[in-house]
Q: What sequence folds into this?
């Protein structure tokens, strides 16, 4: 008689294995598990489920998945679905995927990925077939999930999020959501979603990552209306037709704004963030030199925030203004200025005595500034910089991790000679 590897598993390890099923890799082992461990393979153990798009392509495999969910679906709390919209599989939402979701009524976390339509050429046969086919309404398939708390949609250009005719109805049914992430790639703006986020009164985390393959911005009248409980907000590639209002976001802890390029006209930035007294983390990325003055006003307003600890500025063009008159919050613990065109280490950071993490990677810095900011520094990233002199690191007794990468003008031994013994060089 064959011996299963599960026979030698400790009970706690076996319980962890049985709590998650990945249909792409483990479907064939499920009957064996159920036979040998009838007591442990009870439906109440299953919590996490991952379904790959290949489970729709194979009819027999889809039947097995459906049969398994009919038996154990009531216990599933977390599900990840990967769905293809190519060719005949474009009907998946009206059939297979929607049916499987109805077999898991107690889902608390759902992640839906639809990658494979992204890179079809506009003149290809598959692209034309998808345009002629059904445009599934994703959110309309989720209205029975009354206890859903976390939803992530990562969709291709052929999948509609929701038609505006049903948006208010569906948003009301999903009013219990605490976390919502929508990532869309599309060729035909605007994206089919307007501004009914106001119905999501319990929402604590909102991410909108909308990229148009033609390079044009998406126009939402106001992507952040009154959301009283919001704590984490991330906007990428969103062009507001009215100024973004942060006045009602008094519980906001984390803010990320990115994907605003010079081709976007009259970008409206918030004049100030002084009302966000709980804001601890701000990420500003991918700005152009045409908007640098607006970004600078925004950065200067951050100095007034009492709780700010983490500031990240990445992939930007600071332009001829450089870093003159920039201000940093004196209580910053983490500062990232990655790929911003720095020619030297900013003198303004020398007074940041609380700083523990500093990332100045992908710039043109020859060395560091001396100053009290080095005393508590624990991690320092200087990847892709033409470094000449690192003697100031002798003033960083708390340094534990130094990332340098390729150094054409210095030897690792010269740097290691001035570092504390516990510091790791990468």
A:
């Amino acid at each position: 008689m064959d011996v299963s590897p599960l026979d030698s598993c400790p009970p706690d390890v076996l319980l962890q294995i049985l709590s998650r099923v990945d249909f792409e890799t483990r479907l064939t082992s499920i009957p064996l598990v159920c036979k040998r461990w009838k007591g442990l393979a009870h439906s109440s153990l299953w919590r996490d489920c991952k379904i790959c798009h290949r489970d729709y392509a194979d009819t027999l495999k889809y039947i097995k998945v459906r049969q398994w969910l009919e038996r154990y679906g009531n216990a599933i709390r977390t599900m990840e679905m990967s769905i293809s919209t190519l060719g005949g599989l474009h009907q998946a939402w009206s059939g297979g995927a929607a049916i499987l979701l109805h077999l898991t009524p107690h889902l608390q976390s759902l992640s839906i990925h639809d990658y494979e339509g992204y890179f079809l050429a506009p003149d290809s046969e598959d692209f034309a077939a998808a345009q002629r086919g059904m445009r599934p309404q994703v959110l309309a398939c989720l209205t029975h999930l009354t206890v859903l708390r976390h939803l992530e949609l990562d969709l291709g250009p052929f999948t509609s999020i929701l038609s505006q005719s049903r948006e208010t109805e569906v948003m009301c049914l999903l009013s219990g959501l605490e976390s919502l992430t929508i990532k869309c790639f599309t060729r035909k703006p605007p994206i089919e979603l307007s501004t009914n986020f106001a119905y999501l009164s319990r929402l604590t985390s909102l991410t909108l990552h909308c990229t148009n393959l033609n390079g044009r911005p998406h126009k939402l009248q106001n992507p952040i209306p009154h959301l009283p409980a919001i704590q984490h907000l991330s906007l990428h590639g969103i062009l507001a037709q009215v100024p973004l209002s942060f006045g009602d976001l008094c519980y906001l802890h984390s803010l990320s704004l990115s994907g605003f390029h010079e081709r976007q006209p009259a970008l409206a930035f918030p004049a100030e963030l002084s009302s966000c007294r709980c804001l601890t983390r701000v990420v500003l990325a991918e700005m152009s030199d045409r908007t640098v003055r607006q970004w600078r006003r925004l950065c200067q307003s951050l100095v007034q925030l009492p709780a700010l600890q983490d500031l990240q500025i990445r992939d930007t063009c600071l332009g001829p203004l450089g870093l003159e008159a920039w201000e940093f919050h004196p209580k910053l613990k983490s500062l990232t200025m990655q790929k911003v065109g720095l020619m030297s280490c900013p003198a303004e950071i020398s007074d940041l005595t609380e700083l523990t993490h500093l990332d100045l990677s992908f710039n043109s810095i020859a060395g560091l500034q001396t100053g009290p900011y080095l005393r508590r520094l624990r991690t320092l990233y200087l990847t892709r910089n033409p470094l000449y002199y690192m003697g100031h690191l002798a003033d960083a007794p708390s340094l534990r991790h130094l990332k340098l990468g390729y150094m054409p003008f210095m030897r690792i031994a010269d740097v290691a000679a001035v570092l504390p013994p516990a510091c790791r060089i990468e």
